Structure formats: C-alpha cells, structure tokens
Amino acid sequence: MTTEGHICFAISNIILIKKTKLIYFITSGDWWHIIFGSLITCLLPDIDHPKSFIGKRFKWLSVPIYKLFGHRGFTHSLLLVVIIIIYISIRKINIPMDVIYAMIIGYISHIVADILTPAGIPLFWPYNKKFSIPIIKKSNIKLERLISIIIVICAIQF
What is the pLDDT of residue 152? Predict the structure, then answer.
C-alpha cells in the first residue's frame, strides 16, 4: 500500500472509531489530537524499509531494522503493538490519553491495510505465516487511491 493509502486509511479508521463511540478516549477526545495521533504512527511500521517515506527520513534507524528483520516483519506484527502498549502502560508518559489511543490506532491501521495487499504480513511474528486478504493490488495505484478516498468520504458521512 502507498503512503497516501496508509494516511487515508488511518484517518478513516479514527473518524469511524470516534463516530461509532467504540473507544471512550477517542470518542471524548479532541479531533485535532486524534487525527494528529493517528497520522504520527500510521506510517511507522514501514520504518523497516529504507526506501519508504519514513525510512528515507530515518535511514540511520531504518537500515539496521531492515537488516535485522526485513520488510514486513517485526514492525508489522501484533507483538510490537503489545510491546508498545506495555511500554506506554509502565512509563508515565506525559501525552494525553486520546493522543496515545489515536497513535495505537494509527499503527494498527497500517498493519490492517497491509493485510489487504497480496503480500500480506506476519501478524504473529516470529511465526512467519503471512496473513492476507488481497483486495488492493500493488499494480493498481489508481484503484487504491479511489478506495482510500471512498473510505474517508464514507467515514465522514457515517
């Protein structure tokens, strides 16, 4: 999935979660906080690819992660999400709860979006079975853009 697709997917997810009142901290959260929080992390899993949008900006971190785990490995797994949640729970981080929840949702939205591609992801890494629901093909960027825009519009209209 492209950078644009991940951004649209994260925004639509956070809008739907706020409107459906699924998570208290998102429902009661400030729109600017939750949009900002989800955008901060929606591209973060691709830190494992030196040619990705975020990987190009943080090559010093991206290259070693890529060499250790490859693309769509550890950073695209539920294990890292659990580690992040535990870390946030243990540390007293001075960030509003709506932002923290939005950041977690942004990160998870990236993982879910990559499941929608033929390559899939190893959701339960280090178990290497890839999970995939191949709806979005890499070769059809225009279709991905259309789907992304429709998802955002539907989320806003919901």
Answer: 81
Cα angle, residue 145 at apex, residues 115 and 53 outer, rounded to 5°: 70
Computed over its alpha carbons, how large is the radius of gyration of the chain?
15
| Predicted local confidence at residue 67, as pLDDT | 96
Residues 6+ positions from 10 with CB-CB distance below 8 Å: 38, 39, 41, 42, 105, 106, 109, 110
Residue 97 φ/ψ region, left for φ over 0, alpha for ψ in the -120 to 50 degree band, beta for the rest: alpha
- The closest of 14, 5, 19 to 147, measured between CA atoms, is 5
Query: Which segments of the chain have a pLDDT < 50?
Result: none
Question: How do the domains of the chain map onto residue ranges?
Answer: 3-157
The reply to whether omega before 122 is within 30° of 0 (cis) is no
